Each structure stands twice: as C-alpha cells, then as structure tokens.
Amino acid sequence: MTLRVLAAMSGGVDSAVAAARAADAGHDVTGVHMALSSNPRSYRTGARGCCTLEDSRDARRAADVIGIPFYVWDLAERFHRDVVEDFVSEYAAGRTPNPCLRCNEKIKFEALLDRAVALGFDAVCTGHYARLDGGVLRRGVDAGKDQSYVLAVCTPEQLARALFPLGDTAKADIRREAEARGLQVADKPDSHDVCFIADGDTRGFLAERLGTAPGPILDTDGNRVGEHEGAYAYTVGQRKGLRLGTPAPDGRPRYVLDISPVDNTVTVGPRESLDVREITGERPVWLGDVPAGPFACEVQLRAHGEVFPCTAERDGDRLRVRLETPARGVAAGQAAVLYEGDRVLGSATIADTARVAV
C-alpha cells in the first residue's frame, strides 16, 4: 500500500537513508527538517552537532539526491518550551531528565506527527534503530544503536503512524548504503550529548538559568562535608566534581545519593548505597494489554544501559518494579522501560526508588 510519508530529516546519515528506503518502498515521501532553535548558532555545530545550520543544509542536499520534496519547519518555540524548559525545571526539582526522550515524545511524535496528519500524511518516517512488527515495538537488530528505549514513550496510536526503516540493519551497513546512494552524509559523525548546550557545559547552562543557590553537602549521618553552588548541578551516582572538604573516614570515594531541592542539600555516601531494588514510575505508557497482577519481565533504566530481570505491576496511574538484583545509581526523571525479550511492553518516568539496606 502506498502511503503519504513525511520523513523527518535531521541532516544525519540515519534519517537520510530512512527517507531513501521509504521512497524505494514506493511511498510518496516528503522530507522535512525541524528547525529547533531561533538562533541555530547557539546550538552545537560540526561533528558534535544536532539541529544546526549545517544539519539543515545536509538534509536538503540528501533530499535532492533522493529526489523528494523538502521543507524546513520552524518548531523552535515548541522545542524550547517542551524540551529545553522541561530540562531546566526537572533539574531544579532534583531530577535527571533525558532530553532526547522528551524530544521524541513532544516534538517528533506529537508536534511533528500531529501536523503531518493535519496535512494529510499517513505516517512519519524517522531514522531510529527500532522495529515495528504488527504494531509491536521491538529493539533494533544493532544492539549498540538500538533506540527502542527512547521510543517507549510513544503511544500505540503514534506508533501506528510511524515507520522505522533502519531497525533491521546494522549502523555500519547503513553507512555503506549511504555511500552507495551518493549521500554526502555517509561519513558524517553521529551527534552526541545535549544538542541545545553549545559548549557541553551542563552545569554552566543550568547556573545561567537557575542562578547560584549555595547549600550544604551532607554525608549519610547528616554531617556537613562540603558546599555546593546549586543542587541542580549534581546527579545521582556522580563521583567527580564534588569538591568535598572532608574525606570519608575510611578514605573511600563518595557518590551523590540524593538531591533535595526542598532544603537545598546534596547527600553523598559509599558506592554500595546507590543500589536500589524497588522503583516507582509515574505517567506510564502501555504498548498492549497489561496483566491484572504482577508479571515477570525485564527493565532498562537508561539509554543503552543494563537490562535487569524484574517483577512489574500496574498500580493505578503508577508502575511498580521490583528488581531481582540491585541496580546502581538509578535517577528520578529517567525512564524505566519494560521489555519481554526484544519487545517493548511499556514505560514510565522514574519518580522514586527504594535502596538496599547497607
């Protein structure tokens, strides 16, 4: 069946090959690049870039080679509100957000898809490494590039209008295919880090927007062992950059265990205190029927992170997860994504954890 497909073209090799494959499949494809900054020069540029002026030009050249119409859509205001401001407010609340996950949720599969459907398109095509099998979201075959984790926030209705043409192919083969197609982005490096932080200095970016807010760094007994300029600059599990004035009695390294914006404190302790066995998630998204009671599955707690066997249960508008073995350094604000083998069952935003007693 021929579909009217809107191909999201970031300017990278993945989205270019995805658009080309959609066109090869006989679909009526139109390319679109999302302009996500009112001042693109304020975002990353060059090899470490994403959503930059260079990317827009690369996307247009790729569309010309493929032979499809191409447009640039200005989504800067929506991106700033739903991704950048969300990023800042989450850190201010003591959580550690995943902006790429939020961008997929709010920009690519809400703002972009909604506009595409309103214009008469049947589906949106992206360069994500994931597979759709009869409406079921599965991991991409390239384990190192699998992006099902950041797509698990999409609803079944959104996935029903999505195409992921790269999910059955390894990244190295995608680059070879791009070269064979004559796409200049074949050797373009992948983007990394947070695209809207131009110099990669997350702490400085947050300080500029949230200001300084000095407070104490405490050990697990409540003793003051250091000072911070803003609790938002720390993440659970962090070891470096703590600048503690008082060493641990046993001389062992200490890690951030907790960030409390209410009293502006950061708590540090031994590595083993990072271990958690129970996780509570909020705003769950379910991709299919949910068992009435507890069920066995696996959970992934960060992009490209370890997978843990667990028992999960839907509890009203919350998700409860109990791990068979402890996970270390689980941060509120990240996503807990449930899997059955390579199949995504659902996801939720981590709201709270229960640590293992030490």
From TrEMBL:
Site (Interaction with tRNA): 128, 334
Keywords for the protein's UniProt record, in alphabetical order: ATP-binding, Cytoplasm, Disulfide bond, Nucleotide-binding, RNA-binding, Transferase, tRNA processing, tRNA-binding
tRNA-specific 2-thiouridylase MnmA-like C-terminal domain location: 277-350
Residues covered by region (Interaction with tRNA): 145-147
Enzyme class: transferase
Binding site for ATP: 8-15, 34, 127
Function text: Catalyzes the 2-thiolation of uridine at the wobble position (U34) of tRNA, leading to the formation of s(2)U34.
Stated name of the protein: tRNA-specific 2-thiouridylase MnmA
Organism: Actinomadura graeca
Upper taxonomic lineage: Bacteria, Bacillati, Actinomycetota, Actinomycetes, Streptosporangiales
